[in-house]
Records
---
Amino acid sequence: MMTEESKRKPIGVILREKGVITADHVQFALMEQKISTERFGEILERLGFITQYDVATTIAWQENLPYLDIEDVVPGEKELQLFNKNICYKNLFLPLKIEDNQIDIAIADHFTINDVTQIITRQTGLRPRIHCVEKNKLINKINASYYFLENPVESLLEKEINLLKQDTEHARGYEKFIGFLLQYAVKMRATDIHIRPMTSSLSIAFRVDGVMVAVLALPGSLLRLVSALKLKAEIDIAEQRLPQDGRFSETILHNSYDFRVSTIVTKHGENMVVRILPVSSAVMGLSQLGFYPEDVKLVEDIFTEPSGIVLLTGPTGSGKSTTLFAGIRCLDLMKKNVVTVENPIEYRIPLLRQTQVNEKAGYTFSDAIRYFLRHDPDVILVGEIRDHETAETAVSASTTGHLVLSTLHTNSAIGAISRLKDLGVNSFLIADSLLGVVSQRLVRKICPYCKESYEATKEEKDYLQDQDINIIYRGKTCDFCSGTGYHGRTLVYEILKVDKKMAAMIDKNESLDVISRYAQEHGFTNIFDVCRKKVKEGVTTVDETKRVLGKMRL
Ligand SMILES: [Zn+2]
């Protein structure tokens, strides 16, 4: 008898049928499989041919099930208690929420659907409602959910603080406290921990989704935390007047992180920031980042030109390199020699030749480009253009048959043209080489747990320049979003594609206003329009748009 299970095709076959991967990808991955113990899907992912998001959405498509971003979900305590962690781990599922006689379940592998359904029905009598999620995110969520169920980090942290407060003899070490603090930061998805001495206390804040959130106030007697962290980061604890840097690594809930510690001295004492960097970040796809389908196509078009320069612009922390690597995935990596110079390397793709800037050793962005040109490259990725030399070498390389990808600090896409000129690149060279510019920011998404609709105010309609908008959305604030009303971030962006006419205008040194008008008449959508669209769709809020774009108008 043919069972449901045996009718299911391996993920590689479905991805091939859906056109996510090509025959060449399969061929290459099969070659790799001979010398590896990994599963086929894992090899495809390691080589950068697919992302976990591709796999999850493809399984969802094949099985006609919904895809779910599990990062937006907190499994209920009573739901978690229905199963033990090992069963979830072994069968790769996670119970999320019971509603009436149904239970929401996350799975990551279509071959487990039958087993999981049986386990759920047998153990709970409830009907499972299955959602497809990314495997790496599911494993993280299983680990974190059960770990924090047994070890509620907030109360453990509080207990430890009390013990330290009572310890007037200074006999108690800070290892435990630091451990809980780091776990708490990871649980909150913080990118930075700020430790700030005040007049008689110590304030601890996390940066979450780009915004600071105060999380703890400690008595001044716990100031030794700063020295303990300095020690851990191998920073000179005797030096308390000069700014210092250090680092340490730690594994938290099976994931490795680099912690970069830096101190500066303020009036009240040493201020410390601990930057949290996951050791390896998963490369994402363009649509997953928040590009609309028609714009995914536009970005793909720009990235797949044989030669010229493509620039990503936006402030620090606006996710430029994430987009750069999502764009690189559009390239036929097997047929192209792609070399990179980065600072630091954030994403690793084995088919790229990735190098890291080492200024002390004299290996800078511009040196790297010069070396690369002798290395027969098709594509050169330069982490950042910030000086005349790099700008000129990058642009020159792009006019001699190479595709150059890089980032610049400008506010708008069109501003990249004047920025290149400011850096001393000739207009005719810019006109000759510039293929396109993506300018981007990250806005926070409304928390899915406390999202509510409301009638837009007059002021909001004015700001959005759309009097027809009535209902928009916001987060009411809840426990899940730690009272912020937001959870996670998405991209807002504008894409400038340089056509022949625009190139001629750049060559003739036309003003940015003139070029901008031309672009708008030819389908250019500015970042504000994308924000408005995301506000209308209930993805983000007017306040968030104002916070990120400020009063900027393009
Ligand atoms: Zn909320």
---
Amino acid sequence: MKSAAPPNFDTAAFRLALGEFATGVTIITTRAESGQLIGITASSFNSVSLAPPLVLWSLAKRASSMTVFEANTHYVVNVLAASQLALCRRFATLKGDRFAGVAHAAGDTGMPILDGALAWFECHNRSRYDEGDHVIFVGEVERCGVTGDAREPLVFHRGGFHTVDPLG
Ligand SMILES: Cc1cc2nc3c(=O)[nH]c(=O)nc-3n(C[C@H](O)[C@H](O)[C@H](O)COP(=O)(O)O)c2cc1C
């Protein structure tokens, strides 16, 4: 198979184009074997398959949480509400204990589910694919749920945070 032609754009132009794709925002959480709770903000979440129920997300190889996410059997994808912007920032940047003072409860798999998440997916860490500077994680969903209230989702677009307005 012929290999790809080299890109005719730089990383900034690639980021600019990718930024036009509006996404929701999630926090992926897990509990290390030591009991330490780990979480990172991720917008790379997407659905893969209905039967079996599969989802995916990708993690930068430089992330300090990589060894835990690679080794753990389970993690939770928490879908954020617009009212959870502070949590989104905290789990993207804070160097210390990101869970300090953050309300959460253990799900059926024992992994932490954040209070107030619009939806959550408790996943078995089914497979991982090494690609470029990220690892793609495919999770098999064992449990999922929704809060079921009318709060708006957090939306990430052009590097900024938004929520949704109905079109009509
Ligand atoms: C809106 C938003 C989306 C992000 N999406 C991702 C993502 O999909 N994958 C990723 O590896 N990092 C993503 N990040 C950056 C990580 O949250 C951040 O690098 C991570 O929390 C670093 O944690 P760690 O080094 O402690 O593992 C995102 C950050 C923000 C603000």
